[in-house]
Amino acid sequence: MSEIRAVTDESLAFASDIVRRGGLVVIPTDTVYGVACDPFNAKAIDRIYGAKRRPRYKALQIILSSIDELEGLGLYLPAPLNRLAATFLPGAFSPIAQAAQDGDFARTLGTLRTESNGKRTQAIRIPNSTVSLQILKAIGPVAASSANRSGGESPQTAQEAYEALGDDVELYLDGGATQGHIASTVVAADPHERDGIAIIREGMIPASVIRRALTINGGGLGA
């Protein structure tokens, strides 16, 4: 039976245990509520797709509490996304990270996508929300997607998320209402574009604001 709980030390410990055991939890971000799981657990990732009725070609994001956690996930941000991340993270900005080609990682993220150029990629997020970061510091990086059925409106409250996903999720952490139903802006590095980026999905941060930041910071393609 699912539960909706306020964010407390006890509920965070419970959420951490659920994620560790391959379960699903719903958490608030700075934009919408998301359904989350262990990013290294393929069965848990399957559960997110099943709960949302989400097509498998639509990728999940990795939500984390700090850019410093990227290396431990076997990821890095290519230029100029590394510079944009310094400007827009934490925030409603989802840069497409790349999997490191070297390094010996004990586990591989179950959410990586292989592009036509052979590179493995992963969208990441660091929410600009004190309660979200508190949750993520307690449970660790998670694979996540908005906590609604595929095609439905993204939830702004834990109750809206529960009405969408019900008992498909073990725990709903209630951090209060989020700012709105608009998701983050997803951006990839693209050396074929004049400013070095491609806007994959325009969300909370307008594309014009992101491109202007590149101009202010000295062009798109530098390191």
Key terms for this structure?
223 residues, 6 helices, disordered C terminus
Can you summarize this structure?
This protein has 223 residues and is of the alpha/beta class.
Structural class: alpha/beta
Q: What is the straight-line distance between the termini?
A: 50 Å
Question: Using DSSP, what is the number of strands?
Answer: 12
What form results from the Cα inertia axes?
globular
Which fold does the CATH topology refer to?
DHBP synthase
Low-confidence stretches: 219-223
Please state the average pLDDT score: 93
Please give the CATH class: Alpha Beta
Question: CATH homologous superfamily - what is it?
Answer: DHBP synthase
Count up the domains: 1
- Which value, in Å, is the CA radius of gyration? 17 Å
Largest sheet: 12 strands, mixed
**Which CATH-level-2 architecture?**
Alpha-Beta Complex
Helix content: 25-40%
The fraction of residues in strands falls at 15-25%
Counting H and I runs of at least 4 residues, what is the number of helices? Answer: 6
- SSE succession: EHEEHEEHEEEHEHEEEH
